[in-house]
Specification:
heterodimer, A: mainly alpha, two-stranded antiparallel ribbon, two-stranded antiparallel sheet, 53% helix, globular, B: mainly beta, 22-stranded antiparallel beta barrel, five-stranded mixed beta sheet, 60 strands
Chain lengths: 505, 1107
């Protein structure tokens, strides 16, 4: 009997089989860039909403309903760790390092072509990194990503949060300056799934983000913030912003920085919201802010009940809520719950004008502040009607109320009057409303900075040590265990009641 | 292109080296010449074992060459015996018997099988070379076919419990379809290849290679919840002739990289024993019931501490006012705690809308499960002629597990044949075809036992849960907040929806696996010249698996959200191939009278290929319950995965023997592996071993019948799994607002282009001795090893750019002692033989690579519990955050009255690895009755079980009765809600004032805060437990029907046994979790419980017949 042994036992076959055929080994700046932009932490995706926003910042800023259980204010460690890892591990921080390495190895001639990717990703990095700072305080940044940089594990120190803010603010200025004179390329227009290569919008985005960060730190370091912000606001031509040119009836699609869902996306937030009853209306937002002012956004925010617009009181016991929830409002299906077309809100004109309003109110004149504030509110109305109308699932869409109806609301519902403090409170409250659950990171940060609105948090029956919401998230355990040497230096600050550097009130 | 080895065709010709039968004769030399110098008597007799007659046994007059072999019916006639002479009866694998001849005209000799007596067992030494046991310079353990089958185990691995020193077996709960893990000599690799290599009839078979680096069921709360099987489940114990465990590096060196964790060598049965057409039939049927369940309290129903009850809208005691309830109150169904009102049979409105009695349901956990059944039939035909011998068997296994909804069937066909082509050429052709159908593979209960979302109260009636998990029209249960979906919606919010999900998954949804596996090999043995032999083999292990997952619609499509539906359908296919080949050329000869030698050179190669494809519907099914890909709501999800590897090696062996009592073996192997970076993809390793049978070399005292010392030293390399060291990116085509755009994503584990193979260096010393004509014997081995350049997927802080990296992390070292004892204390009408073994092992980290401060294997409860190792520390150490103390050692108590947990440092509280494991087996025979039983044990080491902590915090267990009333030590105190008798005053001082703690807390507050999720809990007390046990693993009581009866039935033999497995613990330290609860195939997974399914015990009947 004869048989054969067939083994391609040669070294080239050994090498061929070394690499996973399902993966790529070619580093590509545009490919990494698109990955960095394509984040389900930015879009309203199931996992982020269900496990992060509505369980942590959404509770601590009351932008969503939450069940009054004994662990309501305890952060979910593994979910928070996943958020953290999505920034570092496979996230934008590491992608940025991979891009840096790829860029450094390019011939000079190619560097010129690719520079625009590097600047754009920098803006996005500062955006997401500043949100990490707002959640945790000091974070690894300058030394992060050693695996991508040189294939070794070198643990990164936790950079000081105030210094990081300064770095971001300076970096954004440089990026904005770059985009002022840059022109797009065919590749950039294609791979830029955020702004489709529109360099003007990149410039506006960088400036607006810088404005956000300056205002965020303005209570801690008022002089710097004031100087820089007033410089920006006084030279709108040099510092174009995402402000919709102050137009109330603007088109968010053309103006705002929005991360649209992929065209293959058909899911929606129905499960994410209903699983924890976060499709129920939040108390303060509806009962104290929107219903009393007869807000024109009510019909697209909530489904009305026979007893009118009302939300369950935040101190309701769970069993009472379970028995009576049907008498209270739900979030609107068309706008939020079942809207597969809802984009991720990265930077909106409304926010920028609220920021301007605060700056004018504090450091300029009140009438500029009033204009900015009213524009911001009107833009928010336009914005949410726009979101409502994006829905393509066949649900009933609402048309925006007439300008005069909105004007009436501005006059009576959110009248810009009273003391300076009352005016600022009005700005902060409306901005908090505008952020909502969808930008709960921003809502929570601003709530901590301004202590507005005056939310109440029930504390009875909670587990020991968790009777109030935290003022920051504690570091995820994976980082603590594996980066222990550097962690030791910040361990003292790692409590749930440590205040962020900008939280000085 | 430089080829180092020419791809080509090795023409492998055949020869007749040996069939197994020939070897038997070689190893037990029997000369059949009869010395007729004197006139002597003639003796006739039969030789039998527990199964019946033994053919081929040797019957010899001790001290002479006069002997015969028994015929097919076990009969012999021995002539020329003198009175006073001793007749010695022996057969391979049995204890030899000696009978003094005093003129008996006929003899009946019953032989007893003996596994531990390896000096009589044929060992299949490296790569299929048969060697004489006394020539082995390393330790092996052999397990006989009888030991593997006597208690009706459905796979051979779980029949190995306690039967081989240094071999630790753990079976995932879940029954016949669940993986069995085997750990030989402790930890040999931190991250990969932790299971032994399985070699069946010379071919390396697939165990769980398709799972790649991550394995299956390792600490996974989120991903795949089904308890997976592994490849060894497909090897039918009834078809196994012999099983040998090779442990040390020298023993395994020739098997190559995959042998670093030991080798289990299996030979399947051949058609030799009877000669002529023989038919064997075995059948066993067993019932299986869940056992060793937690001890629950049955006094208090759902409810929390008083403040939380009130905040939740209940009375302080935990009743919720409800006018629709007969008593005016209903239980707090949403509570995961069991600190509510006493269950006293009050009539209350239940969550399903009916009025029920509020009573304890002591057996509700057991009620989740059902009684399982196993039916296993095996029919074998065998025959032997001059030219051909074969054995053909068919087995059918029907299994219904203890988990509802799950069952499986397995058909196994096995053919083992030897064809003699010429005097010097023979071919062994072996094929085994296995078809397995598995429906609703058991689910792990991590999301029921390890999550408050699965906590059902002590008042929960499992019949109600089983009734309500689906509605009467086949939809999923409807919670209180969706009354629009069904009028069967629950009246109130309940807690244990994860349990209902589990029932929905197992009872309504249908998950089916259909697996076809063909393992085949052809071996050619050719004696080219007298001293030159060639052996060539090719083998193939092919698996085709089809999986379908039918998820039924959860509610009517009328209630779908606008862009999704429910339900789903997944169809997946996997094709796994292992192609194996080896060739070996051997020259043997003698120099002078005493020095024998043999030199071999060979080649061994293996390719593996794993292809998986899966397509599933997305966002549900558009038409209800129609399971087809064309019924997907969204765009289909499709994925495909290819994995391939190639390993080959050149090897050489040198054997020397002197005077048949001194032996030396040296081996060398140069190995190539595609799984390592090209610059490091080959490595070389040698081994050497020797043995000295001093009882043959020197004259020994009468009492010593055998003595051998052995020593070995070996090195084994171990490569990484496929692709883990690649630095590569996943490309995804994003359908964006700009059209299709390529996005390049990073991996969560970073590769390493400098990765090297890990290398194990091991030395071993051993002593085997037998006394008093082999009635007592022992085998002792000591070994120590270091494994350098350990490959590990090192978990890293995400901020370094990935959550892990594959690195050569350092060096680990182990040492251990193995002892096997066997004895035959009683001989005669009553025969008792006993075998005992014990294995000690300890592994530690010698060195870590620079920049690696410690290794973290497991991290839970916000890092409050970790299994980590630093340089110089033992592997498996458990560290926790402990309760804070002041300088006087007083516990610090916070203002609320609870322990303060010190999160600034870790305290070592134990180790997950056992100090010793082993077993004790016994055979007692009396006339036609035989009793076999095996105990196995584990001493030392701990288990981490966070689900136990959660359940303690929820007041589920009997031990949480403490403090709940004055009788159980509760203090009388007054709080905002009244005066109570459940006060707890923790002993310690106030953390702020330093004064003695005076803050009395309620028992519920105490448990919920002290044993809750996370790092504020007293984790050591709640989740870390000693895990030692002695378990009655197997009992088999067999009755052999007398030949008078069987011959009338036309049978040669008939044996009926009552059998039991996992019957009871003689002793155990764990109270509320089974010692064998852990799942997963990594060494540390075996010390961590994440909430698996309940353990079980089985008992049944077994029938063995042959014609």
């Amino acid at each position: 009997m004869a048989t054969t042994l067939i083994f391609g036992s040669c070294t080239d076959q050994l090498e061929e089989k070394y690499y996973n055929p399902e993966k790529s080994t070619t580093m590509s700046i545009p490919g990494f860039f698109t990955s960095a932009l394509n984040s389900d932490r930015v879009r309203p995706s199931y996992w982020n909403v269900r496990t992060f926003l509505e369980m942590q910042p959404g509770v601590y800023a009351q932008t969503n309903y939450f069940g009054n259980g004994n662990t309501a204010y305890q952060q979910a460690d593994s979910y928070c760790e996943q958020y953290w890892n999505d920034f570092y591990g496979r996230g934008i921080m590491s992608l940025y390092r991979a891009m840096e390495v790829t860029y450094a190895n390019l011939p000079d001639a190619d560097k010129k072509n690719q520079e625009i990717f590097m600047k754009a990703v920098e803006v996005v990095l500062y955006d997401r990194a500043s949100q990490m700072v707002d959640l945790w305080g000091d974070i690894p940044f300058s030394e992060a990503g050693s695996l991508e940089t040189n294939s070794t594990i070198t643990n990164a120190k936790f950079d000081d949060s105030a210094e990081l803010y300064a770095t971001f603010i300076a970096g954004l200025d440089e990026c904005a300056t770059y985009f002022a004179s840059a022109s797009t390329t065919a590749d950039f227009s294609k791979y830029d799934i955020l702004l489709s290569g529109n360099v003007k919008k990149w410039q506006q985005y960088a400036n607006s983000l810088r404005l956000r960060l300056l205002m965020r730190m303005s209570n801690a370091n008022e002089n710097t913030a004031k100087t820089e912000v007033l410089e920006m606001l006084s030279k709108p031509a040099s510092y174009p912003l995402v402000d919709g040119a102050m137009a109330s009836n603007y088109n968010p699609a053309n103006v705002d920085v929005l991360l649209f869902p992929l065209t293959t996306y058909t899911d929606n937030l129905n499960s994410a919201l209903s699983e924890l009853n976060c499709n129920w209306a939040p108390d303060y937002l509806l009962n104290k802010v929107m219903a009393p002012s007869n807000d024109p956004r009510l019909p697209i925010f909530f489904d009305n009940t026979s007893k009118g617009y009302r939300a369950m009181p935040v101190e309701s016991s769970t069993s009472w809520a379970e028995a009576n929830y049907a008498d209270y409002c739900y979030l609107d299906s068309t706008t939020f719950v079942q809207n597969a077309q809802m984009p991720g809100f990265v930077m909106t004109s409304s926010e920028v004008n609220f920021l301007k309003a605060e700056a004018y109110q504090r450091w300029g004149n009140s009438s500029d502040a009033k204009t900015a504030f009213e524009t911001a509110v009107k833009q928010s109305v336009s914005f949410y009607y726009y979101v409502n109308n994006l829905n393509s699932a066949g649900l009933r869409k609402e048309s925006k109320p007439s300008d005069s109806e909105i004007e009436a609301f501005i006059e009576s519902g959110v009248s810009y009057s009273g003391t300076d403090a009352q005016k600022l409170a009005l700005i902060y409250t409306q901005k908090w409303l505008h952020f909502g659950l969808w930008q709960a990171n921003q809502a929570w940060a601003e709530y901590r900075r301004t202590d507005v609105p005056a939310l109440t948090f029930p504390s009875e029956g909670k587990l020991s040590g968790y009777t109030t919401p935290p003022t920051r998230l504690i570091y995820p355990s994976g980082e603590v265990s594996n980066n222990s040497e550097n962690y030791k230096i910040v361990a003292g600050k790692d409590t749930r009641s440590t205040k962020l550097f900008w939280d000085v009130k | 292109m430089t080829k180092t080895f020419k791809t080509g065709k090795l023409i492998v010709l055949a020869c007749a080296l040996s069939s197994l039968g020939v070897l038997h004769a070689e190893l037990t030399p029997i000369k059949q010449s009869t010395d007729v110098a004197q006139q002597r008597s003639k003796v006739t007799g039969t030789v039998e074992d527990a199964l019946g007659s033994v053919a081929g046994a040797s019957v010899i007059i001790k001290g002479s060459t006069n002997g015969v072999i028994t015929d097919l019916n076990g009969n012999f006639t021995l002539e020329g015996v003198n009175k006073g002479q001793t007749i010695q009866v022996s057969f391979i694998g049995y204890i030899s018997q000696e009978i003094k001849y005093e003129g008996q005209s006929s003899l009946r000799i019953v032989l007893v099988e003996d596994a531990q007596k390896i000096s009589e067992v044929v060992v299949t030494a490296p790569i299929g070379v048969q060697r004489q046991p006394k020539a082995l310079g390393y330790s092996v353990s052999a397990i006989t076919s009888k030991q593997l089958t006597e208690s009706g185990s459905t796979n051979f691995a779980s029949a190995m419990y306690g039967k081989a020193a240094g071999v630790k077996v753990t079976t995932a709960p879940g029954g016949a379809s669940s993986a069995v893990n085997v750990q030989i000599r402790g930890i040999n690799s931190l991250n990969y290849n932790q299971q032994p290599l399985y070699v069946v009839d010379g071919v390396m078979i697939r165990n769980d290679g398709q799972n790649g680096a991550s394995g299956a069921n390792n600490n996974n709360y989120w991903d795949d919840q089904r308890i997976r099987g592994n490849g060894i489940l497909d090897i039918n114990p009834e078809d196994i002739e012999s099983l040998t465990v090779l442990k040390g590096a020298s023993a395994t060196a020739l098997y190559g990289s995959d042998a670093a964790s030991g080798v289990v060598v299996i030979s399947t049965k051949k058609g030799t024993k009877g000669g002529g057409l023989g038919i064997d039939f075995n059948y066993n049927i067993m019932a299986e019931k869940v056992a060793f369940l937690p001890k629950y309290q049955n006094t208090y129903g759902p409810g929390y501490d008083r403040a939380n009850n009130v905040a939740s809208g209940a009375t302080p005691e935990g009743w919720i006012a409800d006018t629709s309830s007969p008593s005016g109150y209903r239980p707090f169904f949403r509570s995961y705690g069991n600190f509510g009102p006493k269950m006293e049979g009050q009539d209350v409105m239940w969550w399903d809308g009916s009025v029920r009695s509020y009573s304890a349901q002591p057996d509700n956990y057991a009620g989740i499960y059902q009684t399982g059944f196993t039916s296993n039939a095996n029919l074998a035909l065998s025959n032997q002629t001059d030219k051909l011998n074969y054995r053909l068997s068919y087995s059918r296994l029907d299994y219904k597990g203890t988990q509802r909804g799950s069952n499986s069937q397995k058909n196994t066909f096995n053919l083992n044949s030897t064809i003699k082509l010429a005097d010097n050429i023979s071919i062994d052709a072996i094929a085994s075809y296995v078809n397995t159908y598995t429906e609703n593979r058991p689910y792990q209960l991590g999301q029921v036992l390890g999550s408050y979302g699965g906590f059902f109260s002590r008042a929960e009636d499992m019949d109600v849960m089983l009734d309500k998990y689906k509605t009467s029209n086949g939809y999923k249960y409807v919670t209180y907040d969706h009354p629009e979906r069904s009028d069967e919606a629950f009246k109130y919010n309940i807690r244990a929806t994860n349990l209902l999900d589990f029932f929905w998954q197992q009872l309504r949804n249908k998950y089916e696996e259909n697996e076809d596996r063909l393992i085949s090999s052809v071996t050619l043995n050719w004696s080219i010249l007298d001293h030159l032999k060639f052996r060539g083999r090719i083998g193939n292990d092919y698996t085709g698996i089809t999986t379908e997952n039918k998820q039924f619609n959860e509610y009517s499509t009328a209630f779908n959200s606008t862009s999704s539906s429910t339900g789903g359908y997944t169809t997946a296919k996997g094709i796994y191939k292992v192609f194996y080949g080896d060739a070996l050329l051997t020259w043997d000869g003698k120099v002078g009278e005493k020095l024998g030698y043999s030199v071999s050179a060979g080649y061994q190669g293996r390719s593996e290929e794993y292809k998986d494809q899966s397509t599933s519907t997305k966002n549900g099914l558009i038409t209800e319950n129609w399971f087809s890909l064309s019924n997907s709501y969204g765009i289909l999800n499709a994925s495909a995965k290819r994995q391939e590897l190639l390993k080959y090696a050149y090897l050489g062996i040198l054997n020397l023997s002197y005077s048949d009592y001194l032996f030396l073996e040296a081996t060398a192997r140069k190995e190539y592996s595609s799984t390592l970076p090209p610059k490091n993809n080959n490595y070389f390793y040698p081994s050497v071993n020797g043995s000295f049978v001093f009882s043959d070399a020197f004259t020994m005292p009468e009492a010593i019948s055998y003595g051998k010392v052995r020593a070995s030293y070996g090195i084994v390399g171990n490569a990484a799994p496929m692709y883990v060291s690649n630095v590569s990116y996943t490309q995804d085509a994003l359908q964006s607002i700009n059209g299709s755009v390529a996005a390049l994503a990073l991996s969560s584990s970073y590769g390493n282009n400098n990765l090297k193979a890990e290398t194990k260096y091991e030395r071993e010393l051993g002593l085997e001795m037998k006394f008093l004509e082999d009635r007592i014997g022992f085998d002792i081995s000591y070994y120590d090893n270091v494994v350098k350049d350990q490959i590990m997927d090192l978990s890293t802080a995400a901020s370094v750019g990935a959550t892990s990296q594959i690195v050569n992390v350092g060096e680990i070292a182990s040492n251990g002692l193995e002892l096997a004892l066997n004895a035959t204390p009683v001989r005669g009408t009553v025969h008792w033989s006993t075998r005992f073994n014990i294995g000690f092992n300890k592994s530690k980290v010698n060195k870590l690579a620079t920049g690696v401060p410690q290794l973290i294997f497991y991290d839970a409860e916000q890092s409050a519990i970790r299994v980590v190792a630093k340089e110089g520390e033992d592997l498996g150490n458990i560290y926790v955050y402990d309760r804070a103390k002041n300088e006087n050692g007083d516990h610090l108590i916070n203002d609320d009255g609870y322990y303060v947990i010190d999160k600034s440092k870790y305290v070592k509280v134990g180790n997950i690895m056992p100090k010793a494991t082993g077993g004790w087996s016994n055979t007692i025979m009396y006339n036609n009755l035989s009793l076999d039983f095996t105990l196995d044990y584990r001493f030392g080491g701990k288990m981490v079980s966070t689900p136990t902590k959660y359940a303690t915090g929820a007041g589920m267990f009997e031990n949480t009765m403490k403090y709940r009333d004055a009788e159980h030590g509760g203090l009388t105190f007054t709080d905002d809600y009244g005066t109570w008798n459940d006060g707890v005053l923790l002993n310690g001082v106030n953390a702020n004032t330093g004064a003695k703690n005076t803050k009395v807390i309620g028992a519920a507050d105490y448990y919920m805060n002290t044993y809750g999720w996370g790092y504020d809990a007293w984790n050591e007390d709640g989740a870390i437990f000693d895990n030692s046990f002695i378990k009655m693993r197997e009992i088999s009581l067999a009755y052999r029907v007398p030949s008078k009866v069987t011959s009338k039935l036309g049978l040669n033999n008939l044996r009926v046994s009552v059998i039991g497995r996992n019957l009871f613990y003689v002793w155990k330290t764990l109270e509320n979790v089974d010692p064998e609860a852990p799942l997963g195939n990594k060494w540390w997974s075996q010390g961590i419980d994440v909430g698996s399914t309940a353990a079980s015990r089985s008992f049944g009947i077994s029938i063995n017949a042959n014609f």
